[in-house]
Amino acid sequence: GLVTKVLAREEMVLAAAPARSFARPDEVTLAETAGLPFVDFAPGWAVRQAVDRAYRSAGVERGAVFEVNDIVAAAELVRHDLGVCVMPESIAARSPDLPLRRSARQAPHWDVLLARPPGPVPPAVAALLRHLT
User: Please, where are the H alpha helices in 4-114?
Assistant: First the structure.
């Protein structure tokens, strides 16, 4: 029963330690990442849901070695080559030392939405929408 508005849609990327090698330097398939150790966000998080959905759609199974609730913790685990992590590119950019790889196809996407009750838009929500869009 909520009214939603998409504020942003962003492709997610795979962050990996500089020492981790792949067949292609800038691109991976979901299938070739399936056997890698994953640093994942907690179940229920929007990022986790989008990544899980993309892998399911591709018919690829993967497993998390670590589940975290913080982007800094995820980046540290990846930096020490304890796993790879799929995350929104804008968040991954906060760790410029981590190489990022795009998905060759079926890339997960992260949507940022504004949700509000139906009916007239309250002034505070209208002001926020003007500021964000």
Answer: 30-33, 46-57, 71-79, 89-92
Nearest of 22, 10, 8, 19 to residue 101 by alpha carbon: 22
Going by C-alpha positions, the residue among 81, 29, 76, 74 that lies closest to residue 48 is: 74
Query: What is the pLDDT tens value at each position of the chain, 133 positions in all?
Result: 898 888 889 999 999 999 998 888 889 999 999 999 999 999 999 899 999 999 999 999 998 899 999 989 999 999 999 999 999 999 999 999 999 999 988 889 988 888 888 999 889 888 988 888 7
Alpha helices, H only, 42-122: 46-57, 71-79, 89-92
pTM above 0.70, yes or no: yes
